What we know:
By secondary structure, this protein is of the alpha/beta class. It has a single domain, classed as TIM Barrel (Alpha-Beta Barrel). It has 12 helices and 12 strands. Strand 10 (251-255), helix 9 (261-270) and strand 11 (275-279) form a beta-alpha-beta unit. Helix 4 packs parallel to helix 5 (148-164) and helix 9 (261-270) packs parallel to helix 11 (298-312). The radius of gyration is 20 Å and the shape is globular. The protein starts with 14 loop residues before the first helix and ends with a helix. Bound molecules: ligand PBG. The site of ligand PBG has 12 residues, from helix 7.
Amino acid sequence: MDFPLIRMRRLRRSEPMRALVRETRLHPGALIAPLFICPGEGVRRAISSMPGIFNLSIDEAIQDATEAAKLGIGGFLLFGLPATKDEQASGAWDQNGIVQQALRAMKRERALDSTLLIADVCLCEYMSHGHCGIVRETANGAHEIENDSSVELIARTAASLARAGADIVAPSDMMDGRVAAIRDALDVDELTDTPILSYASKFASAFYGPFREAADSAPQFGDRRSYQMDGANRREAMREIELDLSEGADMILMKPAMPYLDIIRDARDRFDVPLGAYQVSGEYSMLRAAIERGWLDRDRAILESLVSIRRAGADFIVTYFAQTAAKLL
Ligand code: PBG
């Protein structure tokens, strides 16, 4: 059968018709909004490279989260900006760390009962040098990011965040063996029911640029290419996921999203675990910039970018557009 018997346009004639045959849907419950928590009270500090996104003190974060929860958003991904940083990332695993305090405060809010609090687990925001692990100077004066000693601190951080109330812990550091170490640390602490959402496939990306202002976590020297993946590698991403799952990851997070949609599709076809994707800061800022100039239609561009990520195979999306998109849905 062929034209004129078949006319594909028959099913595109009206919005109800298009809605009936729509293959991919977005819903607020599958959107996760990042939150950048900073010390103080009444603080709402704009991030210049991410218009519309703020560093928020705990009280302000609770206000924003409550509003977002009313929209039916699935959850929040918490990042912390500690008052001080050092070379052991003490603020990351301190039981009184900024995110630990935020988690305890948010868990007391009944209005947030319907949403998940996901704690990003990394050391970079808490390290004076901004790297995701412990730095050692080598004999010739170069710097090396140590794996195993970093994993110890990362596991300690995850357990501390879970104790403070995180519903899910999400390691984003890309050290080897961290998922097993985190599972172990959680289980020893009788946190056997806390799931691990592993940023299993995380590429070294220029698209994290704006985040580093938002989280004040730019590396002071070198870059992250000795631990995050090379953007050219598809097969390696599958190996990373396989390893994290074998170490006990319950879910995986793919990152960035738009420049890596093929990797999301590969992962979806290969692994039957819940899979999220992170529409990262650079993806957000790029769209925002074009929207502000009037070069892109705001609502359509935002929703199309999110549908593309769902269509590639992501079950849920971490996105700075979560609130805006939820209002449109
Ligand atoms: C921490 C971390 C980063 C992001 C999430 N967790 C920064 C990085 O790896 O440099 C980036 C998120 C974004 O760009 O929105 N390791």
